[in-house]
């Protein structure tokens, strides 16, 4: 990906890659838009907000590298408990992670300053998510956070999926079944440190949403092998 449509995001991602975090001073940063990754036949599409400045913007892989207490490992631990990942961590693009039935994506492909993308930046990035949905045809979409939830709905609507005139407001555990023409859309709080370290999102809460996704797919609940 070589998109430069959003000058603010381009400048920020490249500045972060130049300055680096002291903890990763000796590493080469990706510093470019981060593509989605996972199982190309995935039935579950997990959509986050954007790459972490020193996580995916460094490693080049979505939900990877923001530390043992960051969103990456919190999400991967939950996917592992659900039997959808072979390991409970995501530290580097070469760490051996394999996802089963899951594809990871985001609303924005570049890290926004303060984790706050502008509406125009979200619009610029939406075609990338639309293309992933068009190719994957996921049967379940999980939006992590309000921006991801509503962005996923916006992408579905742009692809011609008819949405109900009154859609549920974002909250953890909300579900929107779009019937035979569209996927089941679920929502959860984003596994950011702000949410997980304050107890707003617990492992059990995220597990419950993933169990709902498994049930919708007709898969056994809980771990299904290493």
Structure description:
This protein has a single domain (7-20, 33-217), classed as Uracil-DNA Glycosylase, subunit E (3-Layer(aba) Sandwich), CATH 3.40.470. α3 (71-81) crosses α7 (203-217) and α4 crosses α5. The chain is of the alpha/beta class and 226 residues long. The protein contains seven helices and six strands. The model has no long low-confidence stretch (mean pLDDT 95). Helix content is 35%, strand content 11%. It has a six-stranded mixed sheet with strand order 1-3-2-4-6-5, sandwiched between helices. It starts with 6 loop residues before the first helix and ends in a 9-residue tail after the last helix.
Short characterization:
The chain is built from seven helices and six strands; from the N terminus they run αββααβαβαββαα. With 226 residues, the protein is α/β, with parallel strands linked by helices. A hairpin with a 6-residue loop joins strand 5 (175-177) and strand 6 (184-188).
């Amino acid at each position: 990906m070589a998109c430069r449509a959003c000058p603010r995001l381009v400048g920020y991602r490249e500045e972060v890659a130049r300055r680096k975090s002291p903890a990763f001073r000796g590493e080469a940063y990706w510093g470019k838009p981060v593509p989605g990754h996972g199982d190309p036949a995935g039935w579950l599409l997990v959509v986050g907000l954007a790459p972490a400045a020193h996580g995916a913007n460094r490693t080049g892989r979505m939900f990877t590298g923001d530390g043992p207490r960051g969103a990456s490992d919190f999400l991967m631990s939950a996917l592992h408990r659900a039997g959808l990942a072979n390991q409970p961590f995501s530290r580097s693009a070469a760490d051996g992670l394999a996802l089963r039935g899951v594809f990871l994506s985001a609303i924005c492909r570049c890290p926004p300053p303060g984790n706050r993308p502008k509406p125009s930046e979200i619009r610029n990035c939406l075609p990338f998510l639309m293309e992933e949905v068009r190719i994957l045809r996921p049967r379940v979409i999980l939006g992590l956070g309000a921006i991801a939830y509503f962005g996923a709905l916006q992408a579905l609507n742009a692809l011609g999926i008819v949405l109900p005139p009154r859609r549920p407001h974002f909250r953890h555990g909300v579900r929107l079944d779009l019937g035979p023409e569209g996927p089941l859309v679920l929502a959860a709080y984003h596994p950011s440190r702000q949410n997980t370290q304050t107890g707003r999102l617990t492992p059990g809460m995220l597990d419950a949403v993933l169990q709902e996704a498994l049930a919708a797919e007709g898969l056994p609940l809980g771990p299904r092998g290493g």
